[in-house]
Amino acid sequence: MNPESHGPRIEGPTAILAHTEGLREEPLRPERAAPGAHQVDPIAVPSQDANPVRLFARILRDVFIRQIRPPRTDGLGRSVDAQLKVQLERSADPCCDVGRMRNHMPPRIPGSNAHLIPRIAYSEDVPSPLVSLSAGSRGTRIGFRLSVGFRGSSLAGPSRPRQRNPLTLPVDALDNLDFDILRELMVGSGAYLRNDRVSLGTMARAVGVHRSTVADRIAKWTRIGFLGDWTIDVDPAALDLVGAHVHFASRAQPRERALHLAALVEGVEGVLSFDQGWVGVIFMADSPAALARTETLLARILEAERSSRMVDTAVDYPETRPFPLSPLDAKLLTVLLRDSRQTPAGVAKKTHVTVRTVERRLERLRTAGVYYVRPIIHFGHIPGVSFGLLCFQYSGGERGTVLQRVLRLVTNQIGRQVEAPTRGMLVIHGSARELSESAETTASVPGVHDVVLRTFLGETEAPGFPAWLSERIDRQSRASRVAIPK
């Protein structure tokens, strides 16, 4: 038997159950005497039996009834005869049989040296041995791996605790490195969301860490519920739509029911819950009149007497025009709307085109600003950290100077939407005091006015928005009737 014949196929012992009744019993032969538990010699596996489970049972019968010497604190060894109870079962993988063996010691320990070990010494002084065996078969070759240990100790001696990188510890909290990575992931150096496929290496170079650290942090966000799926934000004007982000001073009770009803309204992309009863709703409509009707309906659902539009695409982006979409462009956007992490090869397989065609079409759409890649962040799932939405306005003539100073002074930002000519928004993090200080710092910049700070409490997803937006994408592609060569 070659213990390394199975290679990396066996990752560790797994509990296996099977019945070995009916196997012919043979006496233990002297030439096959069991070696010591700390020095397991290779075993010649019989090759005439093609059943891996039968071979497994024969090896256990011939070899793994042995004397085990558990270590003691005083350095002396003590012989213990153990009877091993084996349970086997074929694994689900037909190419790999895995077994595990646990020790079983009856009240009376059989063997020639059983009289040397009192029962009280066995139950208290002698550590209980733990024996595990893993076996794997590949073709006609079968390999076994045996490991023997004792509770609180090991045959290999005391093991040192493994030191782990503090940057990759599984802590359910976020630190400054997490926020730096998140800011680079969402916007980078742009004014809004990223419209490129940012890589782990790019983010690692931007924040000054290794790419594996970035991957570990993103995996931690998913594990703790901070990072959800990935999607895309489509420019409403590219689809001949209008959009708005409106804050309502809601008085509806119960509050959760009103939030869920608002999320079910046609065209609503998301519902944000803020402090002091404020509710932010992001929605789209086919025309400005339809947008106003949707806003009125939302105000009635939320029982809001006051509302303010934080973003109005018709006012903030008057120069944007509908973008001509081909049927293939519509298919690509619909696929990315469900999951924007897909590679061009995966998208090409779903749309039945070549990878080069997908890359060229998506590059054309990204360059035109039709869509932006966006991770779905759950801001209300992290205890101990507050997230806020900082909104402010400024004069159009001073936009460049004002934005430069605000972005330099507000260092706790992780997202921004500052491409509008007269107003901007920042997503900031920190304690309640730090959020207030950021708002005061922004208000102190000359040329900035109407500073508003809202603290995130949670979000409510709109289940019908992807289907609604996919329908509008298809409608725009039919209206365009543009044939673009592949």
How would you portray this structure in words?
This protein has 486 residues and is α+β, with helices and mostly antiparallel strands. It folds into two domains: 7-154, no CATH class; 171-486, no CATH class. Helix content is 31%, strand content 24%. It has helices at residues 52-63, 119-125, 176-186, 200-207, 211-223, 255-263, 288-302, 313-316, 327-338, 344-351, 355-367, 399-409, 432-443, 465-480, and strands spanning 67-68, 80-81, 83-87, 100-104, 129-138, 141-150, 153-154, 227-234, 242-249, 268-274, 278-285, 307-312, 371-377, 386-394, 413-417, 423-430, 448-461. The strands form five sheets. It has an eight-stranded antiparallel beta sheet. It has a three-stranded antiparallel beta sheet with strand order 5-6-7, with no helix packed on it. The longest helix has 16 residues, at 465-480. It is globular and about 80 Å long. It starts with 51 loop residues before the first helix and ends in a 6-residue tail after the last helix. The model is unreliable at 1-20, 28-47, 65-131, 150-159, 166-170 and 482-486 (pLDDT under 50).
What are the defining features of this structure?
486 residues; 2 domains; 14 helices; 24% strand; globular; disordered N terminus
Task: Compose a concise summary of this entry.
By secondary structure, the chain is α+β, with helices and mostly antiparallel strands.
* Percentage beta strand: 15-25%
Shape field: globular
Question: What would the average pLDDT be, to the nearest integer?
Answer: 74
What are the segments in which pLDDT stays under 50 over at least 5 consecutive residues? 1-20, 28-47, 65-131, 150-159, 166-170, 482-486
Number of DSSP-assigned strands: 17
- Helix/strand/pairing class, anyone? alpha+beta
Helicity range: 25-40%
- Distance N to C terminus: 58 Å
